[in-house]
Amino acid sequence: MRIILDAFGGDNAPLEMIKGAALAVKEYGHTVILAGNEATIRKVAQENSIPLDGMEILDCDDVISMHDAPRSLLREHKNSSMAVGMRALAEGQGDAFVSAGSTGAIVVGGTFIVKRIKGVSRAALAAIMPTQQGPAMLIDSGANVDCRPSMLHCFAQMGSIYMTDVIGGGKPARVGLLNVGTEDTKGGDLQLKTFELLKNSNMNFVGNIEARQVPYGDADVIVADGFSGNVLLKTMEGTAEVLMKSIKKAFTANIFTMIGALFVKGQVGGIKKSFSTEEVGGAPLLGVTKPVIKAHGNAKAFAVKNAIRVAAEFAAAGVVEKIEEAVAANAEEGQADGE
Amino acid sequence: MRIILDAFGGDNAPLEMIKGAALAVKEYGHTVILAGNEATIRKVAQENSIPLDGMEILDCDDVISMHDAPRSLLREHKNSSMAVGMRALAEGQGDAFVSAGSTGAIVVGGTFIVKRIKGVSRAALAAIMPTQQGPAMLIDSGANVDCRPSMLHCFAQMGSIYMTDVIGGGKPARVGLLNVGTEDTKGGDLQLKTFELLKNSNMNFVGNIEARQVPYGDADVIVADGFSGNVLLKTMEGTAEVLMKSIKKAFTANIFTMIGALFVKGQVGGIKKSFSTEEVGGAPLLGVTKPVIKAHGNAKAFAVKNAIRVAAEFAAAGVVEKIEEAVAANAEEGQADGE
């Protein structure tokens, strides 16, 4: 596989990107194509004794930052590492693309450079979240604040295909609709209409799911509009952060707790790890014509390596082709929002 | 103060309700009026040696359960302990009402028995959540799934008055609007229009707040539509539950972690307590003509006692009267949704 990596996206670029690329080359044998300033990449690699074997470089000068408007990727920053990498992907120079850069810019680039699949009205950023039963997908996680029922139906299809084929090893993913209660009649207009669409689909729809059940892992795909999806994702992150900080503080309260902490530290570290996005490998952008993975903004080498692995699995599973088929079938059924 | 208590609402009724009432009588000197079957109350009290001093009983036979339709409170279950208690409140037999029963039924009873304040289009259930900086209010937390900007403005006013006068000791509460980012231009139509209303109000509006910051306590009042508010509240509960369970499991992993746990148990218990709704005392129903407090469905005596205390503080602070004044001022300003 040939994976294109935005070498200048994210808080720890380019060093951790190059390190992660080297780990992926060594461990998986993929070719990694680094998009970014060649001179800087070679200098950083040399200074840190990172071999560039199995890598290629797409030389460019510019970088798009978190503070730039996402749309500037198409004009002012069309020569940024992200834009250059995405154009190379669209032209077929690689099988998948990974960036830890601006989320908004990735959605813009996916939509207008890589381009949407025909019949998909909006690309969705699908967050992969840790749960008690392994990773689950939240789709949409913030790209689309206002949604229609047909959009949520499409998100469910795309998420179901990804989670079944890339993460679940072929086991049909359980699809749940985020709602304020589990009864069929819960929610507003958007949820009621989406419920009907999902109930009448051929997906493994398990009904409405309350936010409280998400961390327990009661569904593999949680379908939501981008507003409430973002609230769910961010609340989970914030709550886990505040709790883990409180526990760390509790461990250093006095000499007795410090001794106690020595014994339990390993186990609690394991919990932190199981609730970490580092392990999961990144969020897929679904609904575009090639595999795009968004790595966490603060991703380090280990997370970058995992994101490259997941990007390759995304490409190998033929997810894009399966989404194309599913969406084409919607069009034949004349699916509409019933409004 | 005379506080009316639904003695048959919640998972642990009537025993824990009666116990909690006895604690409140003893500790605060309030009179507690128990709504529910008198024979059963007297029998349970006697069997458990709970003195009924300082209590009165409103005898009735029926109970509304979690499985009954909320609306049935007004007809089939109009002689339930909740309906009888709320009618007594409306008639002025008590200063405030507490129930651990069905949330939906409490909202229906508040709206149609206790009745809305003139100018308030919807009553809001305001959850009180633990944060790193003390309790914060989430309004609405699930009663109103579809909201208009003027409703969120009213929720903000009511929440601000409650948090300033009942919880904050007069310090103006920081009001934040739940959104997908902190910039003024974030969110959908509902958030953009509400932002303008709040910015031009006389409240201590601190702007948009992301869900991630809520557990850190960056606002005292978090204003949200009932759908995303419910997602926030339930995600926080679910995440904290799953994390604390994982930690408990980690402590019992082997003999060494069990020894370690002995040292840190007290401190970690403190965290659990600080993230517990038991301590906070219940969720106020705001926008109705008398103080109504919803205690947690699984409330035990200690939580019931706290809910009674909070209900009395709610009444003493004159919150209802202040909301009446604020809402009357809106009408004078000819406030509308600008749609």
Describe this structure as you would to a colleague.
2 copies of one chain form a homodimer. The first copy, chain A, is built from 10 helices and 12 strands. Chain A has 339 residues and is α/β, with parallel strands linked by helices. In chain A, helix 1 packs across helix 9 and helix 5 (149-167) packs antiparallel against helix 10 (319-332). Chain A is globular and about 60 Å long. At the A-B interface, helix 7 and helix 8 of A face helix 7 and helix 8 of B.
Concise structural overview:
By secondary structure, the first copy, chain A, is α/β, with parallel strands linked by helices. Helices cover 45% and strands 14% of the residues of chain A.
Mean pLDDT of chain A, nearest integer?
Answer: 91
Shape of chain A: globular
Strand order of the largest sheet of chain A: 3-2-1-4-12-11-5
Number of extended strands of chain A: 12
Question: Rounded to an integer, what's the Rg of chain A over CA atoms?
Answer: 21 Å
Oligomer: homodimer
Q: Which pair has the most extensive contact?
A: A-B, 55 and 55 residues
Structural class of chain A: alpha/beta
The fraction of residues in strands of chain A falls at 5-15%
**H-E order of chain A:** EHEHEHEHEEEHEHEEHHEEHH
Question: What is the helix fraction of residues of chain A, given as a range?
Answer: 40-55%
In angstroms, what separates the terminal alpha carbons of chain A? 44 Å
Low-confidence stretches of chain A: none
- Major sheet of chain A: size, sense and barrel closure? 7 strands, mixed
* DSSP helical segment count of chain A: 10
